[in-house]
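check these tokens.
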Amino acid sequence: MTRPPFALLVTGAPGAGKSTVGAELARRLRAALIDLDPATEALTQVVAGLLTVDDLDDPRLANATRAARYSTIEALAVESLRVGTDVVLVAPFTAERRDPAAWSALRGRLESAGARVVLVWLRITPAEITRRVAQRGAQRDLAKGDPGWIGRLDLTAPVVPHLVADASLQPEQAAESVLAQLDSPQTQRNLC
């Protein structure tokens, strides 16, 4: 008997390594990688232009696009899951990790496509985030030069069932940790 496809949802703070660890998990699982930023960037840029917003973290842009962006990656995941393909979704999933009802709704939609759904939290310290954001120097991080930025981040672990990976590890090690937890009978009981 074949196992149901996985839907691994990788979440964490900016700079935690969501995209990098997510890509490593997708590579090892031979899964479809669906990363919120690249999957929705072109349309987000169009909306930013219409709103005359330069900062991609601007609340006006986030409010105008969040539902559509998440709906897009969810739809892509459902299509892959329906044909039996594992998926790794990479996004902050802030509402879903903070609100059990939001998590339950998303999990239910992915499970209805046949998936075994697992949330993966990349745990990271403020010092490591600061170092990584400075090191990557991405355009989207320019607004994060504000010294108070790090204090406004929500670094609280999800309130819903999840796996934890240490984001200070190398991406390969973090992915290996997640995969080992997925195979653990204890983990399987705790995530149900």
Notes: The chain has one domain: 6-187. The radius of gyration is 16 Å. The chain has a mean pLDDT of 90. Strands lie at 6-12, 32-35, 87-90, 116-123, 163-166.
